[in-house]
């Protein structure tokens, strides 16, 4: 397969490198990734500044294109300009899980969503750890997963969000197809003061409040590799159906 | 009502000012908005830098809080820290329509979505023009719309994406509840060279390719005020249902 790899941790991230190493023997692999970390940028795109592209080498060999923009910029620029059509776009391997509400903020997931928007199948891949991350198992899992991908009942362009537990692979309980959790995050803001006495705020999310075991949040916590098919249909169709039946008496002459 | 106003055009934007003027006589209105333009930032949040907050005056009177972050940051910071609970969050009035695929990239819409995530009802309001924008009619429309909002069959927290045609109000054909268009955008990248001979790329979207009249894109073009109820459920439930029935034969011992 002709593969495009990207991420939101930047072109020098270990997760991207692990994925390249696991996939480049059997596939034709291209890399277009942000020049530096762009996490939590959501589906931001760069329209007020031009994008710069730098060729990055590993050793003496060309390795990939570093882009001065966001993950979504990378996917657009790769598919329209730098690489052209591919068979599959893979975003990751992200350091830290991308489950539940966090999908909305995730650059990793947005890159995969962007591929689907442009008509290409895609995977977003994340690993559930920030320290002592075992990218090797996750990368090898994705390599094996590509072999079974064609047998899955999926319409193109699909977009799968994959999260992988960290640690001892023999403790992984299996693979589960689950929905995105929509449970609230426990969030915190902390007000601090700089050396000049001026206030600033840090924000952070503490924990998911999910209790439904059929969600990505809990299945991952329980030790499963989770797979969630993603779309970008933001219409609340149930609500729309009800609103359409409503007789809105509204005079626009005011 | 206690209202929180925000936007992605920045706290000094005319659309925000028009909204404030139209709403502040009858409602308790608070403003927390980006210190400068933050359009096309999607649902980005700021977690790697602290957020700064500046009080902004108009004349001698306190006007609102300017935040060094994104629209989604503003909503979080306002509801958690600066203002507390409100009855409704309104994001806008945005210069330029937010319909179709562009919802994914829109800071205006993401601010409203963020309110819904946090459990608050919200409106995203945009006007379909970049030049000679008549914010006055749109702001007055929203003021009138707030009176009928309680009669609409909506479960809280709802999020409505509202787009308003520009120009002669008497030519507006009515209000239409429609779905988000998912049609591809015609996009362009243009490669240019700077004064040092180094390449850079501009990206831009040209036109929607939509043909379905029951979408926000076409209804707005035809002269309707469009209203689309928005959710943040990214799971493709149809695909998930099919995947769950699939017997995935996958050996994790490799």
Automatic annotation (TrEMBL), chains A, B:
InterPro entries: SurE, SurE-like_Pase/nucleotidase, SurE-like_sf
Domain Survival protein SurE-like phosphatase/nucleotidase: 4-186
Swiss-Prot/TrEMBL cofactor(s): Mg(2+); a divalent metal cation
Highest taxon of the lineage: Bacteria
UniProt: a divalent metal cation binding residues: 8-9, 39, 94
SUPFAM superfamilies: SurE-like
Catalytic activity: a ribonucleoside 5'-phosphate + H2O = a ribonucleoside + phosphate
Annotated compartments: Cytoplasm
Annotated cofactor note: Binds 1 divalent metal cation per subunit.
Similarity section: Belongs to the SurE nucleotidase family.
Role, per record: Nucleotidase that shows phosphatase activity on nucleoside 5'-monophosphates.
Name of the molecule in the record: 5'-nucleotidase SurE
Organism: Thermodesulfobacterium commune DSM 2178
Organism taxonomic ancestry: Bacteria, Pseudomonadati, Thermodesulfobacteriota, Thermodesulfobacteria, Thermodesulfobacteriales
Gene: surE
């Amino acid at each position: 397969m002709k593969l495009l790899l990207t991420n939101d941790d930047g072109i020098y991230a270990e997760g991207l490198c692990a994925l390249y190493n696991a996939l480049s023997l059997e596939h034709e692999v291209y890399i277009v990734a942000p020049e530096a970390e762009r996490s939590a940028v959501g589906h931001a795109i760069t329209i007020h500044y031009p994008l710069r592209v730098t060729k990055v080498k590993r050793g003496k060999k060309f390795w990939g294109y570093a882009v001065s923009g966001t993950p979504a910029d990378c996917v657009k620029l790769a598919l329209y300009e730098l690489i052209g059509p591919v068979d599959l776009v893979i975003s990751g391997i992200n350091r830290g899980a991308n489950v539940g509400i966090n999908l909305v903020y995730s650059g990793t997931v947005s890159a995969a969503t962007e591929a689907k928007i442009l008509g290409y199948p895609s995977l977003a891949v994340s690993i559930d750890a920030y320290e002592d991350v075992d990218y090797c198992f996750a990368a090898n899992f994705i390599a094996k997963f590509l072999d079974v991908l064609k047998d899955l009942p999926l319409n193109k362009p699909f977009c799968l969000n994959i999260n992988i537990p960290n640690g001892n692979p023999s403790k992984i309980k299996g693979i589960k197809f689950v929905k995105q959790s929509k449970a609230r995050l426990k969030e915190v803001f902390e007000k601090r003061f700089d050396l000049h006495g001026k206030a600033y705020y840090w924000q952070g999310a503490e924990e998911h409040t999910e209790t439904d075991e059929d969600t990505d949040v809990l299945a991952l916590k329980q030790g499963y590799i989770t797979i969630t098919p993603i779309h970008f249909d933001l219409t609340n169709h149930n609500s729309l159906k009800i609103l359409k039946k409503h007789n809105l008496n509204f005079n626009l002459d005011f």
